[in-house]
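Dear colleagues,

As part of the handover before I leave the project, I'm documenting each prediction I ran so the next person doesn't have to rerun anything. This entry is a single chain, and its sequence is reproduced below.
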Amino acid sequence: MLLGQTDGNCIPIGGAAGLERLFEQELNYPAVALEAGIKGEVVVTTFLDPSGRTLSVVIGRSLCPECDAEALRVMHQVIWLPATPGEACSGKENYISVPFDPGKYKRWVKGRHERTGKVFDLPVDTSLVVRSAKQLDEQVAPQVPGGLRGLPTYLAHELRYPGEAFRYSLEGVVTLDFVVEPSGCISNMHASQAVGGGCTEEAMRLMYRIAWQPGVMHGHRTRSQMQVSIRFTLPKQGR
């Protein structure tokens, strides 16, 4: 995966790890390429404006027409930000390698959440616009007991207090911002409020474990913005 190949200071939200997660959850290996034994990487070149908005996404190095098209589709889902808050993007090109590896792809597919619910019978909004909760006709919902209302209980039950945070008596709230894709997968996750000692990483692990029902707008599954806060409070016996 190529990052930082130019003097630009824009990065995908979540960095290289976030991109890997995006590919793991969203990339679909074209059947014709799999059957033909085609493997390798598509290098995608992204051009951005100073705010980090994507101006264009083009193929920098091709693999096959079908893989190229899929690489472009996935890379259009990436949200970019300056590496340093308050700075502008340089506007120079950014290069990303999108992998097409049969063995890796099989592992990815095996680990993906099962799509359940009538919402997945709906067509997909292809505009790539990320909608707010106020714009949705049907809200995003985590597939846990009780949905959004049951999410705090689920998180409290599944949370593993990081050893380092426990040792140093670190507590606090991790706030995660992310996009729920029409597929129900999470993308572009980052912490708008972090806690050290491994708490932020644990919060992200919990989010990635959850299958989501995508938001609906005008009868289409759409990209939706979400924010979840997870509180880390030391157990009483650890005080």
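The radius of gyration is 19 Å. The chain has two domains: 10-110, 118-234.

All the best with the project,
I.
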